[in-house]
Amino acid sequence: MSMGGKQEAKNTWWWNDEVQRAIKEKECFNRLHLDKSAANIEGYKIAKRAAKRAVSVAKGQTYDNLYQRLGTKEGEKDIYWMARIREWKTRDINQIKYIKDGVDRLLVRDEEIKDRWREYFDKLFNGEEEGPILELDDSFDDNNRCFVRRIQEAEIEEALRG
What we know:
The protein has helices spanning 17-27, 38-70, 73-90, 110-126, 153-161, and strands at residues 99-100, 106-107.
């Protein structure tokens, strides 16, 4: 059974061959589940440390190169590119830019889109055609209504004791 929602993709743009090799070596120790000997456990720990170290070194080198490149004239373009990507990632995916009207004509202006949604929900909630308005039955008897007073805390305590 699957639990949870969609898993976010890992950000691995900085991976190089050394990191890839270290991760593969660490994954080779999946046999640890079959044989939990001391040698397998120690080998897994060593591979895990090596993979972490390789990831840390690769990230550090990549970010250093990125910061040096951003300091140059060509890096200015990269700054705008990174800002654009960040904006795309934070953009609301539920934002609708265009819809079709009743006759399959594409609507792109905000006013037209709002009017189309208003028309859609009007038809949805009020029905396609205007029918007769039903009068509510007003035949209940007012004499059968009575008011009940609130129960006091002292009454509850007395009922619980007795």
